[in-house]
Amino acid sequence: MDAAQVLIGGKWREANFKTTFHAQNPATGQTLAQAFPVSEWADCEAAVLAAGEAAEKLRTMAPERIADFLEAYARNIEASADKIARTAHEETGLPIAPRLKDVELPRTVNQLRQAAAAAREGSWARATLDLERNIRSCFEPIGPVVVFGPNNFPFAFNGISGGDFAAAIASGNPVIAKAHPLHPETSRLLAEEARKAVVETGLPPATVQMIYHLANEDGLKLVSHPGVGAVAFTGSRTAGLHLKRAAEDAGKPIYLEMSSINPVVLLPGALAERLAEIAQELIDSCLAGAGQFCTSPNLILMLENSSAEELLDRVAKVFQERSPQPLLSSFGLSQMHSGVQSLVKAGAALVTGGGVAQGAGYRHENTLLRATARQFLVTGEALQREVFGNATLAVVASAPEELQEIVGQLEGNLTGSIYSAKSRSDDALYADIAPGLSRKVGRLLNDKMPTGVAVSPAMNHGGPYPATSHPGFTAVGIPASMVRFAALRCYDGVWQERLPDILRDKIANPSTWRSIDGAWVKG
Amino acid sequence: MDAAQVLIGGKWREANFKTTFHAQNPATGQTLAQAFPVSEWADCEAAVLAAGEAAEKLRTMAPERIADFLEAYARNIEASADKIARTAHEETGLPIAPRLKDVELPRTVNQLRQAAAAAREGSWARATLDLERNIRSCFEPIGPVVVFGPNNFPFAFNGISGGDFAAAIASGNPVIAKAHPLHPETSRLLAEEARKAVVETGLPPATVQMIYHLANEDGLKLVSHPGVGAVAFTGSRTAGLHLKRAAEDAGKPIYLEMSSINPVVLLPGALAERLAEIAQELIDSCLAGAGQFCTSPNLILMLENSSAEELLDRVAKVFQERSPQPLLSSFGLSQMHSGVQSLVKAGAALVTGGGVAQGAGYRHENTLLRATARQFLVTGEALQREVFGNATLAVVASAPEELQEIVGQLEGNLTGSIYSAKSRSDDALYADIAPGLSRKVGRLLNDKMPTGVAVSPAMNHGGPYPATSHPGFTAVGIPASMVRFAALRCYDGVWQERLPDILRDKIANPSTWRSIDGAWVKG
Question: Are B515 and A457 inside 8 Å of each other by CB?
Fold first, then answer.
């Protein structure tokens, strides 16, 4: 059997495999030619072993070396941008321009460069010095990190190039990437650019490794392997919870981003003031990437009145007019369709859409559903089901108290948005709703849709369970996302010359922020 | 049935209970008069409900109010220090002076005051501002925290007064304390001082609650209760792992400190230089608190030579001479004894001790065991069993490589110490051993025994699994220990006046450190 090679121990080599899989072009339904291997356990074992050796060597290297690698990788990706974007377009159906080439690819190389800058600066390690007692601590690499990338961002969240990858490498760890099987050739191209950058900058060969696919039980074994330091996962709640339990039972930190319906509250004053503008933002946010974003607004909350009806009319109209974009796979289509059906079964009414769409590939009608607040409140979690795709549920409340009740019943989410009147006529209502909503989400927005997660040091792309597995960590935003892949280490009475450079009285790097006797000091 | 009351919802009230228990004086074996209730689930449910309401109110209060409470509580404890220390002495057998009254109690009130100062300063929340994009984030209270205190520190780690308590309160959360059933009256006295401080400073009544004991299955239910924000536990690995799984399956952050044998490596040059001094430090560290410290040195690693033999002779001699101090309970004695026996069964030889000691109460002979490195390496984890008490195992290696191998096989520990020659004759050996040891521990010490955990901002009282449940967090050291009980919250485009004070452009508190556009700025 012929199949693409896996990247293990610094070399492209034949996988240990019995079965293969193919990617499809979801815009056409066409199966692509290249076969990819479903790795047997032997590939995982080899990768963990090699990663362990790479981790040892990385610890002895200056952070500048790691930064050089991240920057070389970013340059390599840019040099092959056309080919990578074309391949990703073929495997995902996402448009080359602007999405893949002009937005996601620049974002991805920007993340790599931010991570390089953070590695070089050193402040991410939060060095803390108690000079009087000679006790010092900082964050240090945790060991090999396994990154499971999701289906919906072939670059920016890819296990071999995305935010988790950049954060894990920048904090000094080798990465074992589990590519998503919906875009294997894209991942292969990226991995080759990474491999070249490893060679160019002289990092340990196994700093970057990648396999394409593996059996579920091997995934569970991999995340609980004694040689693994930590795990990052972005994907479905079902898969995430299985990996979570396996990793946690083995005492491994695992960071999961699993599901979110991203409630958007549209207060009446805001609708009275600027309905058309808000409708436009909402529609664009719901349909961007065919709604396949973890921050896609799946739930719209409004008070019953004519503006709410007008907004729904507008949304329904545009949902009907716009051609549905392809979903990422036939499985994604069937999942989305059954999600919509389960919302209907739970009592939601279809306003528009609801069916599989005509046309080539895997497409679903842009779908708007509605329900009353009462329905939402009595059905428990049935109307909180995430539908990953171009569908959204509007819930119309007959009184402000119902909105508050709904917010109180929400599961943990990544984001929560509130639109309010600039005239301030919504201020009292905002004050009633915002505190409760804030506690259910990782990021509270005002007058903004949740899609478009800025790579900012102040970003929190995280939130309460079950949106993620721990409310204290963010997956986006450098340097905060890096500490997920680090262990806190303390040096108590350790001789000056034996300390890591970052903890010595005099630090070589003038850019590093450290907390010395309670004050933050640079250099 | 008459039994002490539990503190729920701000009031001392009769527990829901069917059975009671009594503390014992472990120095005499005498059962103490007061009966304490084993709470039924109804007490847990009531406490969580009340804590949820308190959490809501605490969020709206200025941090100064919380700081005032912590300081009032510290003062109240000091005012009742004699009574509290006498009671703790009766329940634990630990000496009133210096241990309880002059060391642990001052440490405890110092922790409360440091936590108050941190709450007041505000820097713990790590406010991060991206002014250009108007994205801001900080840590905020996570919700009601359940704290399980251990048996060995009736004040400094007590669920109602210790480090976890102080950190959870200072970060703005109510605490439900599960007192340790070996010192219930001590806990009751402390809880009463806490309750008075709550009243004095006008905090929500249920900010501080306490139950004494509950069935194992109710413990599992409690840590997975939807109304609980996070859990802290200090105790045995067996109990810890059960709670860990229950909490994690429910998506709750749980911070556990479970077990550690705290390897101490004595390099040959250090022994040649200052054997008597090191022997003294080692003996004092092993026998302090009858060895019932989480950082007690359970494992001594040395190279085979005459100095090593001389050190063991000295330790054995003093172990024989010093009267064994009482252990905390009959269960502790039987656990310790079976631990020593299991080490013998795994191949360790008894140098001295090994039996239950004569005298009143629960005492075990000061026990020194030894084994060869070869034995240690072939028995896997059998010789890494933590023996909680006045026993220690010396492992003598025939070559430096064996020491390295042993370090490579260690499970995760809280601490690892290396003594080396001031003449620098051990430097090469140190360089071989320290990197491997450092990765197995949360705190690496030079020329210091691990007992005595300073409350320093740079402290890490944590370490890799199974010493704790996550290597990124410390249980001691303010403000770092506080973020365990906080959720990261981001405000994206939120109007200035709607932001928490700590995230506004102009902050009222001139003492708070914030990270603004990448630079740490005060006030």
Answer: yes
Residue A294 is a catalytic residue? yes
Residue A29: φ, ψ to 5°: 85, 0
Q: A94 at the B interface (CB within 8 A)?
A: no
- Pick the catalytic residue: B71, B193, B257, B365? B257
Which chain A residue shows the shortest CA-CA distance from B128? A458
Average confidence score pLDDT of chain B: 97
Hey, of A432, A447, A460, which one would you mutate to test binding to chain B, going by the most B CBs within 10 A of its CB?
Answer: A460
The reply to whether B333 falls in a domain is: yes
**Chain B nearest C-alpha distance from A285 (Å):** 16
Query: Residue B434 belongs to what domain range?
Result: 265-446
B294 is catalytic: yes
Interface of A with B in 205-244 (CB under 8 A): 244
pLDDT digits (tens, 9 = 90+) for B392-404: 999 999 999 999 9
What pLDDT sits at residue B523? 87
Q: Is residue B72 in some structural domain?
A: yes
Assess contact for B115 and B482: CB atoms under 8 A.
yes
Q: What residues of chain B lie within 8 A of the CB of A430, using their CB?
A: 498
Residue A63 lies in a domain: yes
Q: Write the burial class of residue B18 (CB in 10 Å: 0-12 exposed, 13-18 middle, 19+ buried).
A: exposed
pLDDT of residue B380: 81
Residues in chain A closer than 8 A to B473 (CB atoms) = 488
* pLDDT at A477 exceeding the cut of 90: yes
> Between the CA atoms of A467, A470, A476 and A479, what dihedral angle is there, to the nearest 10 degrees?
170
pLDDT tens track for B202-213: 999 999 999 999
- pLDDT tens for each residue of A256-305: 999 999 999 999 999 999 999 999 999 999 999 999 999 999 999 999 99
Regarding whether A380 and A248 lie in a shared domain, the answer is no
Considering the domain architecture, whether residues A203 and A288 belong to the same structural domain is answered as no
- Pick from B143, B249, B252: CB nearest A245: B249
List all residues of chain B from 412 to 471 with a beta carbon under 8 Å from chain A. 412, 415, 430, 434-435, 438-439, 441-448, 454, 456-460, 462, 464-466, 469-471
Residues of B in contact with A489 (CB under 8 A): 438, 441-444, 460
User: In this model, does residue B169 exceed pLDDT 80?
Assistant: yes
Residues A333, A381: contact at Cβ < 8 Å?
no
Crossing angle of the two packed helices A184-201 and A63-79, in degrees rounded to 10 = 130
Do B249 and B398 lie in one domain? The reply is no
Instruction: Collect all residues of chain B within an 8 Å Cβ-Cβ radius of residue A129.
Output: 458
pTM: 0.98
Q: Are B67 and B117 in contact (CB under 8 A)?
A: yes
A179 shares its domain with A235:
yes
Residue numbers of B between 347 and 376 with CB closer than 8 Å to A: none
Which among B251, B460, B495 is the nearest to A469, CB-wise? Answer: B251
In this prediction, residues B178-183 reach a mean pLDDT of 97
Give the closest of B438, B490, B518 to A459, CB-based: B490
> Does residue B205 fall inside a structural domain?
yes
State the total domains in chain A.
2
- Phi and psi at residue B456, to the nearest 5°: -120, 150
- Shared domain for B295 and B228, answered yes or no, is no
Calpha distance A231→B413 (Å, rounded):
21
**Residues of chain A neighbouring B253 (CB-CB closer than 8 A):** 470-472
Question: Do A86 and A65 share a structural domain?
Answer: yes
Distance in Å from the first CA to the final CA of chain B: 57
Q: What is the CATH number of the domain that holds A314?
A: 3.40.309.10
Q: What is the ipTM of this complex?
A: 0.97
Instruction: Look at residue A387 and tell me whether its pLDDT is greater than 90.
Output: yes
- Position B46 pLDDT exceeds 80: yes
Interatomic CA distance for residues B176 and B278, integer angstroms: 42
User: Does residue A387 contact residue A343 with C-beta atoms inside 8 Å?
Assistant: yes
The pLDDT of B153-171, averaged and rounded, is 98
